[in-house]
Design brief:
This protein has 169 residues and is of the alpha+beta class. The chain has helices spanning 12-22, 65-71, 93-103; strands spanning 2-7, 30-32, 35-42, 45-52, 57-61, 78-81, 83-84, 87-88, 108-109, 112-117, 120-125, 135-139, 144-151, 154-168. It has three helices and 14 strands. The strands form four sheets. It has a five-stranded mixed sheet, with no helix packed on it. The chain is elongated. The N and C termini lie far apart (47 Å).
Length: 169
């Protein structure tokens, strides 16, 4: 089962390292932070950089939730585990499948590429293929797209890399 812990934005990598160091493998299968790739112009050159897909969240995979919950008390800087009130709820099967498809095994959402034809976006390659209906905003200059996906029991606005080299009228 996949669970999500909320942390202070900017401390995600620190929390992930603490979880990996303090929690035994038999309790926690994996701890990760989903990233996305974006293209940035740095000192005149285009480079691909990784950014955190969900700032303020760290993901854990475990089948032993009770034991994991007690082990997490050793982690400094943890805000809370996501759930409803007192109950900690794992991500749904739909949310898990979406994250696996979107980020792949490494949980890195790669750059997508598309074109705009008569004011409609068409994704030609990358993880955004088939998700055109969820794209809410595009910034061609910054090579980004914002989409709305249902995660953590609510609509999340997600920023990802999108290259649009061509626009037809």
């Amino acid at each position: 089962m996949w669970y999500v812990i909320q942390v202070r934005t900017g401390t995600e990598e620190n929390i992930r390292l603490q979880c990996e160091a303090n929690i035994p493998e038999e309790i926690m299968e994996r701890c990760f932070i989903p990233y996305y790739e974006e293209r940035r112009r740095i000192r005149g050159e285009w480079m691909t950089v990784k950014r955190i897909l969900f700032p303020g969240y760290v993901f854990l995979i475990t089948e032993k939730m009770e034991e994991l919950f007690h082990q997490l008390k050793k982690v400094v800087g943890l805000t809370k585990m996501l759930g409803t009130g007192e109950e900690i709820i794992p991500l749904t099967e739909t949310e898990t499948e979406f994250l696996k498809r979107f980020g792949g095994e490494d949980q890195i959402v790669e750059m997508s590429e598309g074109i705009i034809e008569q004011s409609r976006i068409r994704i030609l390659s990358g993880p955004l293929m088939g998700m055109e209906g969820q794209i809410r905003k595009i910034d061609r200059h910054r090579r980004k797209a914002w989409l709305e996906v249902e995660l953590f029991g609510r609509i999340q606005r997600v920023e990802v890399g999108l290259e649009i080299p061509m626009k037809t009228v």
